[in-house]
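Dear Dr. L.,

I hope this message finds you well. Following up on our conversation about the binding site, I have prepared a predicted three-dimensional model of the protein together with magnesium ion. For your records, I am including the exact sequence and ligand specification that went into the calculation, followed by the structure tokens. Please feel free to forward this to your student if that is useful.
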Amino acid sequence: MSGTIITLAQQKGGSGKTTVAAHLAVALARGGQSVAVIDVDPQGSLGQWFERREDRLGDDAIDLAFRTASGWGVRREARHLVRDHDAVVIDTPPKTDTEMRPAIEIANLVVVPLQPTPVDLWATDPTLQMIAKEGNPALLVLNRVVRRALLSGEMAAAARGLGYQVADTQIGNRVAFPASMGTGRTVMETEPRGVATEEVTALAREVGRAMRR
Ligand SMILES: Nc1ncnc2c1ncn2[C@@H]1O[C@H](COP(=O)(O)OP(=O)(O)OP(=O)(O)O)[C@@H](O)[C@H]1O
Ligand SMILES: [Mg+2]
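The resulting structure of the complex is given below.
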């Protein structure tokens, strides 16, 4: 039996693709799954994070497999990895069609991080249309949510009103996320009892349920 390919996609830059990709990958691995990550973004941010992670954990302790791919090469790499991993998590760059489309095409589930503003929701439309064209399920995840801001609830309702699936879990705007990433870690390792860890764990559970559908 082969695993699930999860692609992080959102043409709007800075929405949280790389942050969510790293956190989701580690959360799934900590849940006992074998996980591979693929960075198709020429910026290589996930690769930078992974290098730091390798330095910190060492060859024997490293919990994820890591590859890079470009353009259509991601389909081959993902198909190969998914044969012996439970989950393959793909991080994509903003905007570039040539990198994002193949990664969306090969996915079983596309996770779309979205900052909760009307402008961000409008800018997400082309990505959601691309996913719909491939006939793949998309899960929108509100990221960098500011507590008590009414707008987040309104944005979730607006996206659901457009017929999109929105994760019940919202990820807060928390310094813990960039701080942990800078040292090759995730919030689960730097603040295991923090709210950020609760959020990421809940998101991974939701994604796990979506994977089984
Ligand atoms: N939940 C969060 N709380 C606080 N900061 C966050 C959160 N999520 C992401 N960030 C920060 O926002 C910035 C953009 O995040 P990230 O790099 O994950 O987005 P991206 O969608 O991958 O960007 P790009 O489109 O450039 O690839 C980074 O500085 C990251 O540390
Ligand atoms: Mg990125």
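In brief: The chain has a mean pLDDT of 94.

With kind regards,
A. P.
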